[in-house]
């Protein structure tokens, strides 16, 4: 009875505090501040400056203003309650996905739980975004949704294939196949194997391109490209709903970067997870992933949609599939 109670408490803490909703909101807002600040420096601007030390609290203030100050604009065809429900559902999927990683004090692990992770982040998050947009229809909603759907058809399969290769190789060292927890602990050994090094490099390149596209950083900010603000999937969002959608978008960026950090770069390993060197290395790897994405964002202009899809196909999907084929040859040859 006592053990069961302790497990329930750990589960509640993991969902609500760390690595749950409070931690993920804080991490996503910090990540937004970091890439905005770095982008400002790269463009000879100030970036977030006035709210908090070095502007650190500016993303929080922007979110607070949208949720508590701005009004939600609706028309007679709007379904704001449905949009808010799916926004919260998408955020919930991102929070639950972190329970599969070693940083969670309450570990959820088992064979093929990697598929559960993909189900949560690659199905429910984009699906929530689409239904949120369709719940607030307007003259340009269909344009934004069609562009977002076009992106999703290439981004999510590329994300799946880019992570599947290292997960398959790393979890093969254990008795639990395709486990996020076990793969996170063992993927670092794949980098030490010269035979597997090309697989890891291809997976990393594909994953970085996917992060760029999921974040809608340049050159992949296509949903707003041709007609600017009036053609995005969030055209009809305002007030609290816009804040909810922005938060889910930032959390999606953070979870994607965490997945790359753990499943491709090995997280804190080879140091123990709760050790000081391990924590420092984990932070360095996460920040390196976000830094690379931000540099790419500022180094490229905006692509047309056909250019962007061609780039994702060549530099994300094809490298990920090649890495997966090489990994399967290594495992089953």
SSE layout and pairing:
Blueprint (H helix, E strand, L loop, with lengths): L1 H15 L4 H22 L15 H11 L11 H18 L15 H22 L6 H31 L8 H7 L1 H4 L5 H18 L24 H25 L12 H24 L5 H28 L1
Cα separation of the termini:
49 Å
Domain module count: 1
Strand share of the residues? under 5%
Which word captures the global form? globular
Q: How many strands, which pairing sense, and closed or not: the largest β-sheet?
A: none
Helical stretch tally? 12
Radius of gyration: 20 Å
Count the beta strands.
0
Whole-number average pLDDT?
Answer: 87
In helices, the fraction of residues equals: 55-70%
Structural class: mainly alpha
Low-confidence stretches: none
Oligomer: single chain
Element order: H for helix, E for strand:
HHHHHHHHHHHH
């Amino acid at each position: 009875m006592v053990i069961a109670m302790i497990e329930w408490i750990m589960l509640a803490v993991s969902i609500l505090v760390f690595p749950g909703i409070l931690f993920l909101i804080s991490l996503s807002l910090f990540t937004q501040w970091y890439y905005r600040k770095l982008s400002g420096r790269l463009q000879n601007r100030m970036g977030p400056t006035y709210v908090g030390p070095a502007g650190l609290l500016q993303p929080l203030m922007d979110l607070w203003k949208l949720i508590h100050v701005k009004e939600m604009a609706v028309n007679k065809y709007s379904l704001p309650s449905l949009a808010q429900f799916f926004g919260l559902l998408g955020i919930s999927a991102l929070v639950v996905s972190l329970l599969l990683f070693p940083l969670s004090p309450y570990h959820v692990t088992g064979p093929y739980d990697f598929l559960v992770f993909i189900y949560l982040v690659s199905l429910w998050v984009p699906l929530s975004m689409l239904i949120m947009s369709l719940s607030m229809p307007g003259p340009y909603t269909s344009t934004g949704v069609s562009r977002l759907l076009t992106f999703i058809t290439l981004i999510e399969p590329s994300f799946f294939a880019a992570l599947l290769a290292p997960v398959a190789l790393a979890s093969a060292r254990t008795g639990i196949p395709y486990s996020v927890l076990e793969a996170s602990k063992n993927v670092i050994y794949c980098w030490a194997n010269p035979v597997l090094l090309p697989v890891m490099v291809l997976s990393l390149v594909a994953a970085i391109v996917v992060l760029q596209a999921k974040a809608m950083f340049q050159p992949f900010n296509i949903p707003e490209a041709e007609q600017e603000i009036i053609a995005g999937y969030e055209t009809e969002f305002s007030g609290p709903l816009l804040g909810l959608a922005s938060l889910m978008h930032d959390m999606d960026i953070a979870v994607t970067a965490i997945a790359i950090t753990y499943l491709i770069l090995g997280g804190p390993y080879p140091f123990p997870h709760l050790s000081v060197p391990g924590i420092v290395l984990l932070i360095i790897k996460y920040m390196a992933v976000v830094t690379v994405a931000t540099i790419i964002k500022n180094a490229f202009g905006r692509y047309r949609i056909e250019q962007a899809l061609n780039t994702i196909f060549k530099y994300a999907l094809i490298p990920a599939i090649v890495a997966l084929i090489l990994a399967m040859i290594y495992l089953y040859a």
